[in-house]
Amino acid sequence: MSSTLYQSFEHIVVLDTETTGIHHKTDEIIELAALHTASPAQPSSSAQELDLLIRLSKDRTLPPFITQLTGISDAQLQAEGVSKEEACSRFTALLSHPNTLLVAYNAQFDLCFLYYFLARCGHADCLKGVKMLDAMTIYKDRRPYPHKLENAIQAYALHGQNTHRAIDDAKATLELLDAMAAEEDDLERYINLFGYHPKYGVSGPRISSITYRPQGYEPTGKLYDAQ
Questions:
Q1: How far apart are the C-alpha atoms of 197 and 2, rounded to whole Å?
Q2: Nearest to 126 by CA among 94, 86, 167
Q3: Which of 58, 82, 85, 111 has its Cα between 20 and 30 A from that of 185?
Q4: How many angstroms separate the CA atoms of 85 and 90, rounded?
Q5: Does 137 have pLDDT greater than 90?
Q6: For residue 88, what pLDDT band results from cuts at 50, 70 and 90?
Q7: Is the bond leading into 146 cis (omega within 30 degrees of zero)?
């Protein structure tokens, strides 16, 4: 990625999750994917992939609509999934590097799920001090509604696809960041700044390190300039 974000961060981790539903405290992550990219100045700057299916808690099964949306089945989770503890350990290793930025599209959703997931394994402290970036907040300042990842892919004519599989969506988000930086490289001004629709409010618990500002369906200026 060519963004000047690398002037401030040596490592960027792009995250995506697939889950059993939308409730951060009670639903579970079934797929956790991340792309770890290092600054071009680092000896190895190519993206490293983490893509894990995660087994469900005992006696829990996938809702049929989640299987229909993602193509992930209970049998697949059982056969290919790793334990929650292993997934936590492998993901937290990505955040062990100093000066790391954590990115997601609609980051509020993924980060709330990630926090509860890590907390249950005793690893929530790894998020302390980590800076965060919501690619959807940037995109909403660039293009009118609708604002799903698939809309951003189409708007910027990206190669990636929004398949509702975590690794594909993470790759598309990384590609989107590069496209938005090429258009106007003000991405750094959105760090720890998340937009929310004023009609619906912030979804889930507020993250203490994040500044939240109302952001409607139509671009009205830069969110970082709003008071």
A1: 30
A2: 94
A3: 111
A4: 9
A5: yes
A6: very high
A7: yes
**Contact at 8 Å (CB) between 76 and 48?**
no
Inter-residue contact 8 to 44 (CB < 8 Å): no
Give the strand order in the sheet containing 29-38: 48-53, 29-38, 11-19, 100-104, 131-134
Whether 42 has a pLDDT exceeding 70, the answer reads no
Q: Does residue 46 surpass a pLDDT of 80?
A: no
DSSP per-residue letters across 142-193: HSPSP-SHHHHHHHTT-S----S-HHHHHHHHHHHHHHHHHH---GGGGTTE
Query: Any idea what DSSP says for residue 54?
Result: B
**pLDDT band (50, 70, 90) for residue 40:** low
Contacts 24+ apart (CB under 8 A), 155-158: 156/180
DSSP, collapsed to helix, strand or coil, labels residue 212 as strand
Element (H, E) at 134: strand 131-134
Query: How is residue 222 written in tokens?
Result: 């830069």
Burial 57-95 (b: 16+ CB within 10 A, else e): eeeeebeeebbeebebeeebbeeebbebeebbeebbebb
